[in-house]
Design brief:
two-stranded antiparallel ribbon; 2 domains; 7 strands; about 50% helix; about 200 residues; globular; five-stranded parallel beta sheet; Rossmann fold; alpha/beta
């Protein structure tokens, strides 16, 4: 029986316009798959290593021999996309309804600064538990971070649904024991939750 539902932050709770990684890959004339492969091999430096996200993006670009001028352009792309970030208010309404019957968690590969952003956006009270990779030293899809989340929520892993916008973060869900939902939009999420709950 499902007792808790947890959500990723970036790309789920907080959404943005456009596809930054696709824009960067196109600009560097590489495939999105190649960009993501290198990005995911280095993103632990941000998630648990204390580097800024902009620093990690620059390091990934350097792996593709990007010039200083190209890296500067990529930083501008990042800056422009950041301006479009907003809280997914429609999803928050869905979560508030779910909270009447389920514990609600937040699980994010992010820096320790995320807690402040959650408070700044006045959404901290929605979550019964918040687990951030930068604070716990593990990142999705490592099983340890899901165990920490389930313990904070006071539920077993097989009583938990986790919603994320990245397939990679949901890898190993079956082995770890939680129910994964790949987030694409609010309507599809409601349909998928209805089939599981």
């Amino acid at each position: 029986m499902i007792k808790a539902i947890a959500f990723d932050f970036g790309g789920v709770i907080e959404i943005k316009e456009g596809n930054l990684f696709q824009e960067i890959a196109s600009y560097l004339q590489i495939s999105l798959e190649d960009w993501e492969r290198v990005y995911f091999s280095l993103n632990h430096m941000f998630n648990v290593g204390g580097k800024s996200w902009d620093e990690v993006i620059a390091l990934v670009a350097k792996e593709f021999n990007a010039s200083d001028e190209q890296i500067s352009h990529i930083k501008n792309l990042v800056s422009e996309i950041k301006k479009t970030k907003k809280i997914n208010s429609e999803l928050l309404e869905i979560i508030k309804k779910l909270k009447k019957n389920y514990k609600i968690g937040l699980l994010s590969n992010n820096s320790v600064n995320l807690n402040q952003r959650i408070r700044d956006n006045n959404i901290a009270e929605i979550f019964d538990a918040v687990v951030i990779s930068g604070e716990v030293g593990f990142q999705k899809p490592q099983p340890e971070i899901f165990k920490i989340l389930s313990e904070k929520l006071g539920v077993e892993l097989n009583e938990l649904i986790f919603v994320d916008d990245t397939k990679r973060s949901l890898e190993g869900a079956e082995k770890i024991g939680y129910f994964p939902i790949l987030f694409t939009n609010n309507q599809k999420l409601e349909e998928e939750l209805a089939s599981l709950l």
